[in-house]
Amino acid sequence: MALATVPTMASTPVEESPHYRPLYRQVYDSLVRQIAEGAWRPGEALPSEQALAARLGVSQGTVRKALDTLAVEKLIERRQGKGTYVAEHTAERSLFRFFKLTLPDGTRATPTTEEGETVRRRAARAPELKRLGLAPGASVVEINRVRSIDGSPAILERILLPVALFPDIDKRIPLPNALYALYQREYGQNIVAAEEELHADVARREDAKRLGVVVGTPLLHIERVGIGVDGTRVEWRTSRCDTRRLVYAVTLS
Amino acid sequence: MALATVPTMASTPVEESPHYRPLYRQVYDSLVRQIAEGAWRPGEALPSEQALAARLGVSQGTVRKALDTLAVEKLIERRQGKGTYVAEHTAERSLFRFFKLTLPDGTRATPTTEEGETVRRRAARAPELKRLGLAPGASVVEINRVRSIDGSPAILERILLPVALFPDIDKRIPLPNALYALYQREYGQNIVAAEEELHADVARREDAKRLGVVVGTPLLHIERVGIGVDGTRVEWRTSRCDTRRLVYAVTLS
DNA sequence: TGTATAGTATCTTATAGAAGAGTTGGCGGC
DNA sequence: GCCGCCAACTCTTCTATAAGATACTATACA
After folding, report:
1. What's the pLDDT score for residue A236?
2. Among chain A residues 203-232, those with CB within 7 Å of any atom of strand D
3. What is the nearest nucleotide to B78, using C1' and CA?
4. Å from A246 to nearest chain B CA?
5. Is A68 on the interface with B (CB under 8 A)?
6. Per-residue H/E/C for A57-112
7. Distance of C1' in C20 from CA in A125, Å
8. Which residues on chain B are in Cβ contact (under 8 Å) with A248?
């Protein structure tokens, strides 16, 4: 049996299809696509399991299995007796999930942006096209800012965004503290995963000046690509961090 | 209804118990405990879902739900038509899971140990007791070794293990490449998670000599605590890595 | 030596009832 | 009439079970 909303599969018996996927997987794919398309806004409730089951022509338990998967992937949240909600990036949450820098004592750090933030639009260069998976000729927005902890500079950030996804973001300065919430709320770009690459480096003259440290201070250099629901590469962020002030802490499992 | 193998719960109706846990959760706990106790060796097959269900007096679906959870936590592996197996740390796997250093082009790095590895036993110091959650007076084994990529040194490693958990590990030199597989196979210590803290640092004289780099070279300093199935802190590992040769790459989700 | 076939394992789907959370309406007191 | 309390109802997700489908292995057989 195939989903009523997937007519291309409904026409042939699933057993004969080379792209066979279990029913609950089809439901999962369908829901992911709809969430990606913004059928429900973040924070909004999805139809109930029964309603979804009826609409898709499967049983409630099958819908439930798909929703379970979405829940562990943090795309949705469920509350017994209330409903199922599309996850939203609150300021708190997105920091907890993707911001791995903590204070040396292990407590959460909440950085703020210094004066002098710059936003400009320009053509993307070759490595940027590659990292963001863009077609040649695409434009990007480049944001540069200094992030502070307890009032003194600790991180240099450079953020690259495809203009195609964020058409007017250069008119939104000063940018809010929780960028991912902005991406989600204003541009429908929901970042669900991130690939990070870390190097050790030392502060050069320009770094030293902006961070208020001496040349040669060790810096943690972080390259991050933010991934959207459908695998789109949404953001490329480069951070250079003074790790005497902040520690990169991550739990592998 | 409570598990037949959990008599403390079976005596009172679950509804009245303040420690109420769903059946499938009780099954899960029971299985985790048994795996931790080594009821089945790593790589060995568990009884079938039906057999477990019969033994525990629940339905196959309930056992399955518990096994599903164990599977996402990577404590077990399942193969349709074959059976369910206790996960084992093969050399390949443990590297993929907890070794986040890759070559600059993104391919997997397989380090080897240089000559000159040292293993010694001594009393644990205060910070070590704290990190490993040991009682005062406990002893540790300290391992120091240089790890190489393509034949040239890239990582300095210092490993601390509680002697209580690894009684005779100092007699096993040279240690194998895949330490976590050794922990699991010979000492029943199955590492399922790890907490890592990363700093940027520069090479001091001793580092420079052992790694063959100049003093002042940026180094990535990694502190890792390995966590066992029941939350025990099994290993404290400190790595100092030349990130011109290796990159720390991690995917957050 | 290759091919059915039986048996046993996990995987998929469906259904029924329990438990949580809010809403509504009745009822008594003021 | 108006307010407050509480039980009943209805909606939700959660739990537990059962039955059939699918996958793999080994054995019997031509």
Report:
1. 98
2. none
3. C10
4. 8
5. no
6. CCCHHHHHHHHHHHHHCCCEEEECCCEEEECCCCHHHHHHHHCCEECCCCCECCCE
7. 54
8. 197-199
Q: Which CATH architecture has domain A91-248?
A: 3-Layer(aba) Sandwich (3.40)
**Residue A19: count of CB within 10 angstroms of its CB:** 7
Half-sphere exposure of A168 (CA within 13 A, CB side): 3
pLDDT tens digits, residue range B138-162?
999 999 999 999 889 999 999 999 9
Q: A34-75: per-residue pLDDT in tens?
A: 888 888 988 889 999 999 998 888 889 899 999 999 998 888
Contacts of A74 in chain B (CB under 8 A): 253
Q: How confident is the model at residue A19 (pLDDT cuts 50, 70, 90)?
A: low
Tokens 């269900």 sit on residue: B53
In CATH, the architecture of A7-86 is: Orthogonal Bundle (1.10)
Is the predicted pLDDT of residue A181 greater than 90, yes or no? Answer: no
> Which bases in strand D are touched by protein, i.e. have an atom under 7 Å from a CB?
11-19, 22-25
Percent of chain A with pLDDT over 70: 91
The model's confidence at residue A207, banded by pLDDT at 50, 70 and 90, is very high
Domain ranges, ordered by start, for chain B: 7-86, 91-248
Q: Taking CA atoms, what residue in A is nearest to B219? A: A200
**Cβ count within 10 A of residue B172:** 12
